[in-house]
Each structure stands twice: as C-alpha cells, then as structure tokens.
Amino acid sequence: GLVNYREVLQYAKEHKITVGAFNSMNMETVQAVAAAAENKRTPLIIQTYHAHVDYAGPDYIRAIAQTAAERSNVKIALGLDHGRSYEQAKKCIESGYSGVMIDLASEDYELNVRETKRVVELAHKVGVSVEAELGTIVTADETPEVIAEGCTDPVMARRFVKDTGIDCLAVSVGTAHGAYKYAPKIQFDLLKELVDTVECPIVVHGGSGTPDEDVEKMVRLGIAKLNVGTEFFTAYIDAVKEMTKGDSRPDIIDMMRAARDAVRVTADAKLDILTRFRV
Ligand code: 13P
Ligand code: ZN
Ligand code: NA
C-alpha cells in the first residue's frame, strides 16, 4: 500500500537520492510515473495539484495510486500538492492520502504557522506526513530578480519548522512554477544553508524547465524531494495533439497510450538525474 512522505524521504537521505514528486491526475499519468520509478528502483511521490484533486475527487485518485502502490516493488506515497486549506487537507487525509501539503506561504507568518499546525495535528494522528512552504514560489514568467525577492529566509525557515512540526519544507531558492520565460538563477549557497541547517528534509518546487545541470547540483546538495508538474502535462498534451493531428476519429486507446508513453519518457529522464548519486 501507500507509505507516507517520512518513509520515502528517509530512503532519500540514506541513499543520497532525491525523490521525484510527480504531479499526476489520472490513470495514465499514475501508471507512467509508477512504471518509471519501478524501472529505476527508486521510491516515488505521486502528488495531485489542489485543483486536480477538486476536479477528480481525492477518493478516485487515491484508488488509482493505491493500485499502483500495491503492484509496485518500490515505495510509493500519495500527496496533496499546494493544499489551499485545512478543509482540503482533511478531505485528502480522510480519502487515504499519505501526505498533504498546506500552502499558506502567501499569508502572514502567524497564520501560516497556526493553520499548518492544525494540519500537522490532524495528519500525524493517522501517520500522514505534512509539507508546508515558507518564502514565495512565483510563476516562471517572472524575471530572476522577481523570483529572487521571494527567496526563503533561513532563520525564519528554522523557526517555522520548530513552530509547526512539519515533515518537510518547501523553499524558494530561484526555481519557479511552469515553463521559464528567462533562465532561472538558482541560489545554491542559500539552498546549501537550508539543507544543512533546517531540521527537516528540504523540498524544491518548479522542477520543470530547470536545467539538468542545476537539478543535478541540487541533488548533490541533498534536497529530499523535487516537484515536477508542467513537463508532464506538456508531454501529455503534445502527444495527444500529435496523435490526433489530421485524424478526426482517432482511436481513444491509441490516444491515451500515446499520452502515457510520453509521460513515461519524461519521468525516466527526471529520475535518471534524481538517482545519479545513489549509494
Ligand atoms: P513545475 O510545474 O514547474 O514542474 O512545478 C511543479 C510544482 O512545483 C508542483 O508543486
Ligand atoms: Zn509547487
Ligand atoms: Na518550473
């Protein structure tokens, strides 16, 4: 069955890998990323973006991810990504998710702490892990200067982890959500300080479009979890477009299979980097 974040992040630390946290929202994407993880013999976090949870229903997603976990030889966790509220996190926990992110980083510090703590209390009672965020992870059409303004303060990060008891912390170090308009400038010194001094595993978001050599450096510095979304969605959509191009009545299975295969290729490439320094 599904394991919690704590278990996969512990594996990451012991084996010097970074866990891929891949945004998935249907059977095809779940099967693709699970097959890639199995092939690389590495644990995996399947995560669903908050809007995708609302779209599909957490119970449906959980059923698909659980089937993948039961059939797999590697540890698989299922998490809510960028949860908007305590209520949304609660729904996912009740549906059998093994991890939840509560993202109140845009709120003031006190509110972020208070609500995150409520989620931690609820989640930890049933063995579910919690990720929260400090700093601002903006969208990738912003300039590196604007992205840098949201970077996580390490002093506040250490305090936030103590104040909340979370299992992993999402930080802002120069990556951004979506496809980059400008080349990202990752603040590796800041990231190193965060990894070395914050009391819990560190999560980097905005994996899509981040150059492979930057991802490799972040893996080397010891980030525990890398979130990747957009690249999977783009691969999926492009494959469907290609498949249906000039064919007004494509076979639905051919279309779904093309999407699944494309997501698998993307997952293979990411996991290659994330497991490169395995011990
Ligand atoms: P990308 O879409 O840039 O890969 O970011 C994914 C993410 O951070 C999900 O939380
Ligand atoms: Zn994110
Ligand atoms: Na990105």
UniProtKB/TrEMBL annotation:
Pfam name, any one: F_bP_aldolase
Organism encoding this protein: Bariatricus massiliensis
SUPFAM superfamilies: Aldolase
Protein name as it appears in the record: Class II fructose-bisphosphate aldolase
Matching NCBIfam families: cbbA
Cofactor: Zn(2+)
